[in-house]
């Protein structure tokens, strides 16, 4: 077990965990978060209350509560006279998100190295193997969520739940950045980088690990392409097909 699993990453990894409780609002919240992070709902996509209420079979009041929660974690933006839409991060914000992750994650690595045990390494190797398979299968959604899971679970090894939660939230915002500014082939991080980081962790080479992580983030920023995305209302029925409000598997 890798410390504490944070947020929706738990559900992504199939660990039968949930983000909050299992009432209707929470289920819809989780479905929208996953759709945004996995790039099924792209930045700039309109989120009309009526269409979402019809899709999920709930009231507009319930949808409004969920959209307010998403706005609180900066995944959704409310625009005057235009309603809610998936947040489109600006160029400065895009760079700052990754600079902040670089500072936080690199600073925590000495604690990760000190706390790391064989069971942690085995669990991390499992994530990397799944991520590599997702790239081979060209499964973009899986590659994105596993890339985020690698970073969150790596930081969770140190046992600092506050920092891990911060990294978890930043990975959500990172996904928006990649959706807007990433190259067409860019799905999460380059998984060979994660393999290299894991090898350095196994050797407990803290200096090299920190240096490699810093370069990892620098490379991501260097590959961003600063052009804006679209602005449209998605096909919610298709995106959320077979989800509804049933209990998660």
From TrEMBL:
Q: Does the keyword Transcription regulation apply?
A: yes
Keyword terms, alphabetized: DNA-binding, Transcription, Transcription regulation
Q: InterPro entries in the record, alphabetically?
A: GntR_C (IPR011711), TF_FadR/GntR_C (IPR008920), Tscrpt_reg_HTH_GntR (IPR000524), WH-like_DNA-bd_sf (IPR036388), WH_DNA-bd_sf (IPR036390)
* Transmembrane residue ranges: none
Q: Which domain of life is it from?
A: Bacteria
One annotated GO molecular function is: DNA-binding transcription factor activity
Q: Does the keyword Signal apply?
A: no
Can you give the residue ranges of the HTH gntR-type domain?
A: 22-89
Q: What is this protein called?
A: GntR family transcriptional regulator
């Amino acid at each position: 077990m890798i410390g504490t699993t944070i947020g929706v990453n738990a559900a992504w990894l199939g660990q039968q965990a949930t983000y909050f409780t299992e009432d209707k609002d929470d289920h819809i919240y989780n479905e929208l978060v996953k759709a945004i992070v996995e790039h099924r709902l792209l930045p700039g996509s309109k989120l009309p209350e009526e269409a979402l209420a019809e899709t999920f079979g709930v009231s507009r009041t319930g949808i409004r509560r969920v959209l307010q929660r998403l706005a609180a974690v900066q995944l959704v933006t409310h625009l005057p006279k235009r309603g809610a839409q998936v947040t489109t991060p600006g160029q400065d914000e895009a760079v700052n998100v990754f600079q902040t992750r670089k500072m936080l994650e690199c600073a925590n690595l000495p604690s990760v190295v000190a706390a790391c045990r064989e069971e942690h390494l085995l669990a991390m190797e499992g994530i990397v193997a799944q991520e590599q398979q997702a790239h081979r299968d060209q499964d973009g959604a899986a590659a994105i969520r596993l890339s985020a899971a690698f970073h969150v679970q790596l930081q969770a090894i140190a046992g600092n739940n506050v920092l891990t939660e911060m990294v978890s939230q930043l990975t959500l915002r990172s996904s928006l950045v990649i959706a807007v500014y990433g190259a067409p082939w860019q799905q999460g991080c380059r998984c060979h980088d994660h393999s290299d980081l894991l090898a350095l962790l196994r050797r407990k080479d803290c200096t090299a690990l920190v240096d490699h992580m810093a370069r990892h983030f620098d490379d991501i920023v260097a590959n961003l392409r600063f052009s804006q995305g679209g602005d449209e209302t998605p096909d919610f029925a298709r995106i959320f097909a077979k989800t509804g409000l049933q209990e998660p598997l």
